[in-house]
Amino acid sequence: MATPDTTPLPDMTAAELVLGLLDGDERDAALHRLARDPAFAVEVDAWRDWLGALYAAWPGIEAPAAVSARIEASLDTRGGVPAAANDNQRWRRLAAVAGLAACLLLVMTVMLVRRPPPAPVRIPVAAPAPLIAAIAPTARGAPIAAAYDPASGTVRIAGGVDVPAGRTAEVWAIRGEEAPRSLGLLPRAGARLTVPAGARAAMAPDTVLAISIEPAGGSPTGLPTGPVVATGKLSG
Amino acid sequence: MFSVTFVPVSDDPRRTAARVALVEALVRTGQEDRDAFRTVYHLTSAKLFGICLRICDDRQGAEDVLHDVYLTIWNRAGAYQPGRASPISWLATIARNRAIDWRRRQGRAHRAPVEEADATADGTVPQDDALIADETHARLHDCLEAIELRQRSAIRSAFFGGLTYAELAVAQAVPLGTMKSWVRRGLLALRGCLDGDS
Fold this sequence. Notes:
Helices cover 31% and strands 21% of the residues of chain A.
């Protein structure tokens, strides 16, 4: 039964963000809040779980056979780079800024990589040579050493970042103007992450490694949605 | 096609098996197993194409988005945490967000009338949809049914059509403030119902 309602509208931003009701400045503000307000992030996760149940009611439609063939071909030839996301201006600027930071931090990185806590970095004595980066916090704090071993396809990150409750840190590789590729979630103590096959081609000198704060479980979109808290550039 | 009674996953071995198979295939995809990736595609492409087609409202656009969605899944499967989210919801969220991004990049208004959103998404579950239906869905369904029709219609249209407030207001021919009021009060009631049941 509808009743005339003169009470102030409730703040339902978390649900609005999950539903995609917001656009423009409102959406930007909500994403900003998501990154800074752990209670809000928990609320967003709850709505994502609740509303996710609606997918059961979504009728399936058989996909054209050509799409499957296209996907296979893309994985064979391009390493699976999502083409639609290549126009992200924010990440281009980030790559440029991170490049400058990397020059300053290179010496420190070498030192850190040579004595990484708690486990040693596995650097093969034979070629190909590893790539290293100092992932520097955008606010303050010591840089985190990272070393990519092309032989094993793993990147070792010798530490983590502070993450609000209910959130997780996610590592990204950004080559040039391409879309960021996720390398996985980063535990507080650091980790050795296996770089997905599709992202290995991007693990090259000048590629930027970045850490963003994402909802628990990682970015739901495949691209960074939270604030970038640290960046560093790979070098040989 | 007919509707079914909602049953908890744990009571239905077939549904449980389907979800376990998808989780396993997704985890192995994260380990760069192309065969497992093909299994994920086989199990989920109809659902995800349905999402893309509905939101893009353009067949070629939906095919392009579906292509990108599966490349994203290939690249990101390693980040999927089996205990955290239902596998199909995780995949469907990627598809829905990508499709919404595509449509908004096109700058196109959604042509489908709001009523259609309810017609194609009336809360019933096809018999063969073994991957998702569970207690959460049953509860959400009941709670949605309990709120005002126009509020429910707006929330469903937002979800299934990927519509913004502005698009919803145009589709329903009401002022933007009225639409926000309907949706927010509907969401508030929905949250109260869901919290109360949990």
